[in-house]
Every structure is written in C-alpha cells, then in structure tokens.
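User: These chains co-purify. Model them together.
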Amino acid sequence: MSAISEKIQASEAEAAAEVRESRRKVFLRWFGTPLFLVAAGAALMTYAFTTELDRTAQRALDPERVIELTLEHLEISLLVALITVVLAVPTGIMCTRDWARRIRPFFIGLANIGQATPSLGLIALFVLTVFGVLFRSGYQAVVAGLVAYTFLPILRNTIAGIEAVDPALIESARGMGMNRRELLLKIELPLAVPVMLAGIRVALILAVGTTSLVYLFPGTTALGQVIQQGHGLGRTAVLIVGAGLVALLALLVDYVASIVEWVLRPRGL
Amino acid sequence: MSRWMSVTALLSVVALVAAACNGGDTAEGEIDPNDLVLCVESEFEVRGDGLPGMEEEYGFEFPNVDTQDLGLIYSNVGDGDCTFGEVFTSDGRIGALDLHVLEDDQGFFPLYNPAPVFREDAYEENADELENLFNPITEALDTDMIIQLNERVSADGDDPQQVAQDFLDEEGLLEDVSGTLDGADITVGSKDFDEQLLLGWISVLALQEAGANVGNEIDLGGTVAARDALEGGEIDHYWEYTGTAWIEFFEEEDPIPDEQEQYEAVRDRDREEANLVWLQPAPFNNTYALAMSQEEYERLGQPETLSDLEPLVTEGRLPNGEAPEDDEGDTGE
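Assistant: Joint model of the two components:
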C-alpha cells in the first residue's frame, strides 16, 4: 500500500519537475535570446564607447549614422526576404504539382545556380550586366540580386515540406471528396509549414548577412560599410562594432522568425 | 488554384512597386540638391583627408552621398548616374571617359607627387649617373602625360612594359644614357596598381638601357609591402608618393600644401631616419579629386572648382549666377 502511494508521489514529483522543466524551456524560448542580444549589444556598445577613438573612428561610429545604416540594413534584408517568400513559395508549390514535373528541374537548377554563385558576383551581375536595364535604380538591382541569392532555401524547403506529407493522408483526403485546391490549402500547406518556415529562417539569415555587401553598389548602404571602413583604415574598434551589429541583427531577425514559426506551427489536426 | 496564383502575382507586384518608390519627381529645369549624388568609396567618406575634411574646409556639405566601389564610380560618373565622383587625378579613366576634374581651389587634398626612391648605398655608388638618367624622366611626367599613359594601361589594356618603352622612346629619354651604369646591380620594385607597374617598368627599361644589371621585383603588393622591401634591402628602388610618405610613414596629421616644401621635408627626413634617397619628384600629382561628366558639367553651369559647387549643392543654384534653364520661379510644388 505504502509502496503504491510512494510510487504515486514519485510520479507526481516527476510530473511537477517536468512542468518546471517545460516552463524553463518556454522561458528560455521567449526570453533567452532577447536577454543574450541585450547583453551582447550592451557589451558591444560599452566596448565601442570606452575604447579611445580618434576622429576618424568617431566619424565612422557616429551614433546617428550607425543607426541610419542599421535601419537601412534591416530594411533591405526584410524587403529581400519578403520578395523572396512571395516569389519562392508559389514557385515551390508549383513545382510539386503534377503538371509541372517536367519544368521543375529548371527552377531548382536556377535556384541552385543562384545560391552557388558567390553573392558578390551575383549582385554585381544584376547591377552591371544586361539585367541592370530591367531595373529603374541601383537599389532595385541590388535587391533583385539578393533575392536570387536567397531563393534556394525557401524553394527547396517548400518542395520538401509538401512532398513529405504522408501519401496516406492525401489518399484519405481525396476519399473525403476534397478537390485539388482544398487538398493543397487544408492538408498539404498546413503540414508543410514547419519545413517551409525553417527555409524562410535560413533565407532571412542569409539576407541579413549578405546585405553587408551592398555598400559596394550604387544606391544602397548598409552596415558592411562600417566593417569596410574599420578594415580599410585600420580602426579595429570600428571593424568589431560593424561586424558585431550585423551578427546581432541576424540573431534578432532569426529570433523574431522563430517566434513566428512557433505561433504558426500546426498543433495537430 | 488560379485564384491562389493571382493573389500571389498581385502581392509580388505590390512588393516590387513598394521597392520602386524611393525618390520623388522634380519639375523640369529645376535642380534639387538632393538629386546631385556624390559617389565616394567607403573609406573616403570618413577619412580626415577625405570627405569630412573637405566639407569642413569648404564650408558646405553634400546632401546626397552614395558609397560604392571605386571601379564603379568612374563609369557611373561617366554616364551621369553619379553627378560627382571621387577620383584619383592621374587615373587613365579620366581621359578615357572624358571626365571634368574640379579644381581643389582651397588646396585641401594632400599632394602626392611620385619620385624615384633609392637605398642610400645603391644611390651613392652612381649618384650623378642616376640623377642624369632619372631627372629628365620625372620632368616629362606631367599630369596630361601620366593620364595618357595610364589610360593605355587601364582602359585599353596595353602591357605596362610596352607603354613604358613607348614613353621612353617617344620622349627621347634614353638617347645619351647607354653604358653610364655599366656593372651596377639595381633591383627595382613597385606597388601593385597600374600606375605603379608603369613607373616600375620605366625604371627597369631605363636602367637596362644604361647598362645596369636590373633585378625585377615589380608588383610587390601595397604600400607597406613595397616600403618594407626597400628598407629590408630586397629592392634598391621604387617610386613613392610624397604625401604617402608624409602621412603614412611619418604619421603626420597635416599635409604640407606646397609641392616643393612637402618634397623637401620628406626627402630630408627619410635620408636622416631611414637612409633613403628621394630624387626629384614628377610634376604630376596623384591625389583625390571630384570629377563630373562633360554633360553634367554643362547642365550644371560649368563649375570649375570645388568652391563653385557650394551654390549648387546647398540651394540648387547654378554657379555662374544664372538661374537654371526653364526656371519660371513658380514651377515648384
């Protein structure tokens, strides 16, 4: 008798521990990254403003200017990610349709080329070559180049997500009388969402990192400029702040995307 | 399915239009200073002897500054995408693209006149012969000449060795030098950009013609690499710029605004501290400048100097005092 009650108590304690454990996980999920980002950001700022800076370094790290560059960096990366999602998700869905089996290798190949080409070369290709005339401004051409570079992860994950849906589920949905559109919207897409979102997160981080290069091209600036100024002029503090800010921005964007992913993730059907 | 696709298409159009909407329109004939783009390299944007110092010296600021790669600046100035661009005054692309270089009327930018620099021991052995060989060469290198030579290398893709040979032959600089340096061993170096390759080859060919045994270490790398090689004795000579020595080697903050004074200061100090001998410098000066295309120069009232830009970039007023063409005074919004 007492043995049984001990067992019950033990399992209750275990359950309580599990609750605590999962609470800790939830806490970490929501607050761990922001706490880290704030701490790292504060460390970076402290470093920047306690190091003795000469006038050149002060100009390069002028707060107003750094904020402006950070915002433009964020704007370009988010615009790139948005356009890529809008273009790559439908392309991915199309590639999984029966009628598109034949043209699918073409799209995947194109996206592969985009990813495999060095990002700098790809942007230059859009800005400098015949593609350039398609765009009204350097800004658009740069954004287009970055979209081409970040296309693959979203395309690939959209295809993989949809193809990973259990064929038996699709069979039974058909059996329930769903037509193709209902099948896509109610079964395939919701189940593919986690994989697709993982691809979007990869694309976001790629976009934030690669946006660093846009300062080389007409019409755009970003934090890469601060990195280059630190490197080119031999001001290490400037270099560290520039690189640190890009890394923090990438982590921040990834954190926000992880929250979105957690919210949108289907919790069973 | 088709509805799904059309929604997507609509969204993409919205996104692209949103991306397109930066920058408004101005009425015809009016100049908005914000449309006058100054294109610079990222370093020039923060260097004390670059844009910040220039704006301070001239007392006005450029409202629209765009950073980009130096190679793009020349072509973008050429086709008018950049109204003004940071250039180097002896670059061959100035000639190739027919750019108009604005005069630094306040004498702000440091002076970078190149001169042949020798290790003291290599110089002492044949001092007079080296002076006699090199001084006519440096004298012939004025701004027009170096732009023309650089243009052949940078824009036409000619071999720097061939361009150097043609220069020496056409200017008749090797006529009386044969045999003057018989038996001398001299190793020549250079940095890694077109103008330096050209100057390096000029030295190699001239020294060979004079009978010296010439070691060829052209294309060593950047400034630091070339200087280290000279100080370390791996090379006996390369061409260095007075301003580079003053600012980078001696770490002086303020350039000397007179070519001859700056040369003498560098020459004396390098002789004393590093046992290096500076022969006389060339008349051309490879420094920063702002340039514009001939079309923009005409459109914007033919500004000749950096000071002429002030009314343009602060108020959109043409520097020659005339109102912009077609300006009725009330065409603005």
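Residues 149 and 324 of chain B are 38 Å apart (CA to CA).
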